Amino acid sequence: MIKNVIFDIGAVLIDWNPRYYYHQMTKDEAKVEKFLTEVCNFEWNHKLDLGRPWDDARAEVMAKYPEFEEMIDAYWHNWPEMISSPIHESVDILMDIKKRGFPVYALSNWNDITFQVALQEFPFLRLFDGRIISGEVKIAKPDLRIYQLLLDTYNLNPRESLFIDDRLDNVESARALGIEAVQFISPRQLEQDLIQYGVIPVGDDDDTDPAMGCGAGCACHS
């Protein structure tokens, strides 16, 4: 029986994608793709999520790609503009689960500095009963140690915990430790998964208060 629900944040609760900003910065789509696949790519960003200082991360890519200086600096200073919005339906699901009495936790790869800004921008991030942020603990998914840290910190039974993440490798790591886990595809699919796990009753209609939730009349992004 599931007693705890653990959420990833990016691409599950918040729609973050650097392309949102860079496609406004330049109309040269080939340049944007080169930048995000060769310069400030996934592996480089992963080190930021591990808490690497910005100055070190900047120096690494500037030494190789000085012609991208403006775009490199924007990655840090303009990152809030890379967020389209909260994923409203997912936030409503989070609030509904919490309202039903389930403890909810966050397990997210996120830089420690920028996460503090996100906490101010998105008040719903304070709804969690506990959180482990990679930049704060210097370990990141899919490293098994960060999942174990969450379990140990909050005394969670893995078989009673359901983890939700958009990346399959992160989901598989959770399962390797005995945590129940599903890959996030869409809010609608997540609802179905939660029904299968008995977190949300079959045929239940969400009556989340719009003034507090993230659907119509969204108040989650201040």
The side-by-side strand order for the widest beta sheet comes to 5-4-1-6-7
What is the quaternary state of this protein?
single chain
Q: What CATH architecture of the largest domain do you see?
A: 3-Layer(aba) Sandwich
Give the tally of β-strands. Answer: 7
**Ranges with pLDDT <50 over ≥5 residues?**
207-219
Report Rg: 18 Å
- Following the backbone from N to C, one meets helices and strands in this order, namely EEHHHHHEHEHEHHEHEH
How many angstroms does the end-to-end distance come to?
Answer: 36 Å
Biggest pleated sheet: 5 strands, parallel
Instruction: State which percent range the strand residues make up.
Output: 5-15%
Q: What do you see in this structure?
A:
The chain has 222 residues and is of the alpha/beta class. It has 2 domains: 4-15 and 84-196, Rossmann fold (3-Layer(aba) Sandwich), CATH 3.40.50; 16-83. The chain is built from 11 helices and 7 strands. It has a 5-stranded parallel sheet with strand order 5-4-1-6-7, with helices on both faces. Helix 10 links the parallel strand 6 and strand 7. The longest helix is centred in the middle third of the chain and has 12 residues, at 88-99. 31% of the residues are buried. Mean pLDDT is 93; it is low at 207-219.
